[in-house]
Fold these 2 entries.
Entry 1:
Amino acid sequence: MAHQDCDVIIIGAGIGGLTAGALLARKGKRVVILEQNSLAGGKLSVFERGDYLFQTTCSLFNGFELGGIHERIMAQLDMLLTKQNQNPVWQLILPNHRVNVYNERIALLDELKREFPQAGDKMKNLFQRADEIENGFFDMQQHKNFFCPTGLKEKYIYHRDILPKLTRLTGGLEKKGADLLTLYGDDQEFVKLLDLPIFFHSLLGLKECPLLLAAYILGIPKRGAVYFPGGNQRLIKNLIKSLENNGGKIRYDCRVKKIIVESNQAVGVQLAGGENLRAKEIIANTAIGDLYANLLDDPNLLAKISKKTELFPRQWMPFSVYLGVDEDVLPDQLRDNVFLCNDYQKPIGDTHTLFINISPNDDPERAPQGKRALTVTAYLPFDKWQYAVSSADNKLALTKEIIRELSRFLVFIEDGISFQDSSPIPKQPISALWPQGLLSGLSHTPGGFGFNGYSNYTHYKHLWLVGEDSFPGRGSNLISLSALNLADIICQG
Ligand SMILES: Cc1cc2nc3c(=O)[nH]c(=O)nc-3n(C[C@H](O)[C@H](O)[C@H](O)COP(=O)(O)OP(=O)(O)OC[C@H]3O[C@@H](n4cnc5c(N)ncnc54)[C@H](O)[C@@H]3O)c2cc1C
């Protein structure tokens, strides 16, 4: 057998790669993570500008409740992490409504009764039905084989246990969020309110969103969400510490150029500098398009994926504006995570629909006293996004457009801005599927019961996929579930 430098090489130190790496190291595997950037965290990374620390994308973390995915992983890693509950978990703002979505359903229903007094019990019925589905789905996540089945045994378990349960829960996997509205009625303002968190998590409105996914998203506040004082790097640093304490290593500024394949088996990687490393298992924490187009140079597989993606409408692409602002220009009622829509008449999406993450007032690491760090994100139609990022002037014009939309609600904000920057996902490699309007492969496409992506298996032996493109793959919580599954598969095998 050829010399192996370690047991497992992981390409990429995003939340998926780091979680898989830390779990595998804990189980005794010799792990090396190779990260092309000088910082770990991928889309969860933070950046410092002046006195501010900005979170690039992710700001809401779910799965830390008892039995939640992060909680299970932290228990396996003996990881102690300082975190704060976020309650209200998020705030929804429409031209004439403001609703705090609390952890407790009773408190949420009180908010909704105040804003929609005519709704009576209908609102309660809608959330009861959504919660029934979400509770069943949560229980299923504890199931060891809750992932895209590939092997014969997994397929058998999936078809025998999982699929029938999912179908029973939703009343049919083809059902959409519109189904919940039969319990409520088609009130434009109420639908827009629910559209907001659903859109930012799924890139679909409530009515089009698969019912299971809609129920999962509406259930996030009920399960609870947390933030990390000092920012997301707390979570990242803890995962790295756990990896290193168990003998694992992480190498920065280390781009993998190719995966070395011999007789249809992955046996190692070639780095951009020319060095070759060999291992028994190779894990790619990359977008699936990049894996097949760049790392494997397998045009047939890429063509297959591209063909699949042509079936989907062009997707939305994120654009974030980072602002350092004086606290005085923010209204007292404003919460730390806000979904905002300025216009009932326009469909959801684009710059009139924003997600705003505001650094907590008691977090001096994120902003100096009296100031706050804001990340304001809009999802844009692909063509508009492409135009905006094609030149510095276009980018600035879009930034101004977003600030204008923001100031329709935060009327004094422009007077309080002391720092301003913007980006279409900083420090990220351009995914091979971006030109097709896909943020990251298939996890952001509608279809199925809403949770897309490939399994952890690939077309090559000893080559695995983890992260956004591996099922169930959306958000740090479900990405970590894919890492948990993968660590189990590798250690069993
Ligand atoms: C605007 C926005 C807001 C979001 N908000 C939330 C939120 O509030 N809550 C939540 O849970 N999720 C949120 N998400 C989703 C979440 O941030 C991502 O799904 C998650 O961070 C992706 O993790 P990952 O491990 O799959 O990949 P990534 O974070 O993309 O990490 C991949 C890593 O691999 C590295 N890499 C790639 N190719 C190579 C190579 N060839 N060699 C070496 N290294 C390589 C990259 O540099 C990167 O560090 C948000 C996403 C977006 C876009």
Entry 2:
Amino acid sequence: MNDIITNNERRKNDDRRIEEPVIYDNKLIAEIESLQIAFAETTEKLIKDVKRQDKIMARSDKRQQKEYDELQKKLKEVNELSKEIEDTQKEVIFTMGAIGESRSRETGNHVKRVAEYSKLFALYYGLSEEDAELLKQVSPMHDIGKVAIPDSVLNKPGRLNFDERLIMNSHAQIGYEMLKHSNRKLLKMAATVAYEHHENWDGKGYPRGLKGEEIHIYGRITALADVFDALGSERVYKKAWSNEKIFELFREEKGKQFDPKLIDIFFEHVDEFIEIRVSLNDFLE
Ligand SMILES: [Fe+2]
Ligand SMILES: [Fe+2]
């Protein structure tokens, strides 16, 4: 009996021993499995999120790229337009200069030579490449005021009398009046050059009798470049001067009519100035 009970008990105990771990293992596996599922779901969700984020970013990258491209395109258009405007200004200035000179029967090459001499003076004087180039653009305009001078005075073969000289000299003031209203840098500088290209270093020039550095450097340079070219060329009223005669006048007028520093530059680099005259001579036209 005892044995039977004992056996029964043992069996029960045995059953419990067998069953319990099974139940325990199943729960654990189920938990692990559910954890695995949850983990897989979370991972999948995360991957989806990352992918969606990538797509959003790619889309916004594309949009940004498109906006950037459009901006670049507009910028290019603006640059082209401003270059066009600048080129037009240069052409207008050069043409007006040529008109001014043609009235006094000077050749188109006169203004081209004055432009080149002026740039060379500007660079040796120490102006920047940009300022020297600006002067090159505006110096051909120095005599634009001559469009308003009557032919009888402008092209008189002999010497001008006092009154005629006054009329002739008014071209500096007239040129300035013609150009002074513009807000454009090029035209503003052209106005200054027209106004001041007959001022003398010693204050004895016209129209305002400015002295020394009161005269804009563009005016001082154009004055010397213009005289150098005018003297070396044949005009209705005179033969071309020899170089020696021009050099003598320049030595004489250093510190009087002309800025002494510019005269020094001229003699230091005289070969280069002569070279410009030769390369743009009137017989090539
Ligand atoms: Fe002049
Ligand atoms: Fe001139």
